[in-house]
From TrEMBL:
<dbReference type="Pfam" id="PF08240">
    <property type="entry name" value="ADH_N"/>
</dbReference>
<dbReference type="GO" id="GO:0051903">
    <property type="term" value="F:S-(hydroxymethyl)glutathione dehydrogenase [NAD(P)+] activity"/>
</dbReference>
<keyword id="KW-0862">Zinc</keyword>
<protein>
    <submittedName>
        <fullName>Putative aryl-alcohol dehydrogenase</fullName>
    </submittedName>
</protein>
<dbReference type="GO" id="GO:0005829">
    <property type="term" value="C:cytosol"/>
</dbReference>
<dbReference type="InterPro" id="IPR002328">
    <property type="entry name" value="ADH_Zn_CS"/>
</dbReference>
<keyword id="KW-0560">Oxidoreductase</keyword>
<feature type="domain" description="Alcohol dehydrogenase-like N-terminal">
    <location>
        <begin position="28"/>
        <end position="156"/>
    </location>
</feature>
<keyword id="KW-0520">NAD</keyword>
<dbReference type="InterPro" id="IPR011032">
    <property type="entry name" value="GroES-like_sf"/>
</dbReference>
<dbReference type="GO" id="GO:0008270">
    <property type="term" value="F:zinc ion binding"/>
</dbReference>
<dbReference type="GO" id="GO:0046294">
    <property type="term" value="P:formaldehyde catabolic process"/>
</dbReference>
<dbReference type="InterPro" id="IPR013154">
    <property type="entry name" value="ADH-like_N"/>
</dbReference>
<keyword id="KW-0479">Metal-binding</keyword>
Amino acid sequence: MKISAAIVDKKGSDFHIRDDVELADMTDDDIQVKMVASGICHSDEALRKGDAEIAYPIVLGHEGSGIVEKVGKNVQNFVPGDHVVLSFYACGNCENCLKGEPTKCLHYAANNLSGVRPDETAHFTEDGHDVADMFDQSSFTTTTVVRERNAVKVPKDLDLRKLGPLGVATLLVQERF
C-alpha cells in the first residue's frame, strides 16, 4: 500500500515528505492505523540530528493517534473504527513487564530501536530500498501498521489531535481508560 511519510534521508538532514512510500503488509498480530495526529518529541529531533546510531533513511514519530482500519486475525483487543494512541513496544513477558514496568522492558532496544520489524523485514520501502522505522511504528505517516501491543484504545469522544503527543505515556496509563 502506498502512503505518505516524512523521511530523514541521512544524519542531520531535514524531513522530506514523500508520497511513494510502500507500507509493509500486515501480519496476523498487527493493526493498520490511519494516522490523525502525531507529536514531535525531543527523541525524534535527536535521531534526526544523529545523536544515536540508527539506520537511515528513517521514518520517525512515536507519539501518534489514529483510527484502526484493519486488524490481523490474531488481534483480540481492537476492531476497525477503534480510536488509538500509539506508543513504544513492551514485550509483556520479561521480568520488568510482568512487574508492571513496561518502560523498563528488558527487550526495549530490540523491539523499538532496531529500525525493522520483529521478523527483520522493513516496515517501509521506497523505490525498492528499505526505510527504517522508529519504535516499530513510525507515526510521521498517513497510515502505519503496528503490533497490537503498540496501541492503546481510547474513548471515541476524545480529540485524537490532542492525544497524539501523549503516546510516550500511554502504556503507563492504559488501564485507566
